[in-house]
C-alpha cells in the first residue's frame, strides 16, 4: 500500500473493531424503525426507491430498503471519529440513522443534513431528540433549492456524505457546488457508486476531476480526497 493516508485509513478506520457505546444506542433506534408499522406519505425527489413504488409507505419497509447497513454507517462514524472534521454536510437524511452516527463521531462538530420529504425529516428529528444529539441542523426541501442557500451560509466543509439522489446529473451538480467549499483535507463520500451505470459514470468523472487527489472505492461507497500534500493522483479499490 503506497499511500500513507490509505495505510493509516485501513489500519485505524477500516480495521477498528471496537464496539463503541454509541453503536448500541443508535442501533436500538434502527430496530424501532424496522418494527414500525405506521404509514407515511413520501414524495421522491431523486431516483426513487427500487423496492417501494407507491408514495404511501410503511416505515418499516422504508427502513429495510433505505437505511445504510450497520457496517457502513458505523464506518462513517469511525471516519469522523478518526479525522475529526468540524464541519459536516449530509445530503439525504432518511430517518437519521447515518446522521446520528456522523454526529456521534465528533460531538463538537456541526452536522448539516438535508432531507427532501417532510414526513421523513419529522421522524429523523424525533430520533435525534431520542438520542440527545444537539449538534445536528436539518434542512428540509428539494436539494436544488435548499443546497445553494445552505452553502451560502457555510465556508469550508471538511466532510460530505452524499446519499440523496442516485442519478448522474444531480450527483455531479452537487459535487460541483460542494467543490467550491472543499479545502485541503476535505473528505467527500458518495453512496452507491455502483448502483447504476449513471452512478458509475458520475463516479468516474469525480475521480478524474483535477481537484481530487486520491479516491478509495469500497464498492458501496466511494471516498474522494482533497489534499495538496499528495504527490500524485491515486485510485484505490479496497475490499470491505
Spell out the blueprint of helices and strands.
Blueprint: H1 4-14, H2 21-34, E1 39-41, E2 56-58, H3 59-66, H4 70-83, E3 87-91, H5 97-105, E4 110-115, H6 118-130, E5 136-140, H7 143-151, E6 159-162, H8 168-179, E7 187-191, H9 197-208, E8 214-217, E9 221-225, E10 234-237
Parallel strand pairs: 3-4, 3-6, 4-5, 6-7, 8-10
Antiparallel strand pairs: 1-2, 7-9, 8-9
Describe the 3D structure.
The protein contains nine helices and ten strands. Helix 2 (21-34) runs antiparallel to helix 5 and helix 7 (143-151) runs parallel beside helix 8 (168-179). Helices cover 42% and strands 18% of the residues. With 240 residues, the chain is an alpha/beta fold. The protein starts with a helix and ends with a strand. Strands 5-4-3-6-7-9-8-10 form an eight-stranded mixed sheet, with helices on both faces. Strand 6 (159-162), helix 8 and strand 7 (187-191) form a beta-alpha-beta unit.
Decide which structural class fits the backbone: alpha/beta
- Overall residue-averaged pLDDT value: 92
Radius of gyration: 17 Å
Strand content: 15-25%
Order of helices and strands: HHEEHHEHEHEHEHEHEEE
Q: What is the helical fraction, as a range of percent? A: 40-55%
Q: How far is the first residue's CA from the last residue's CA? A: 15 Å
Low-confidence stretches: 48-53
Strand order, sheet with most strands:
5-4-3-6-7-9-8-10
Number of strands: 10
- The number of helical segments is 9
How would a crystallographer describe the biggest sheet?
Answer: 8 strands, mixed
Described by the principal axes of the CA atoms, the overall outline is globular
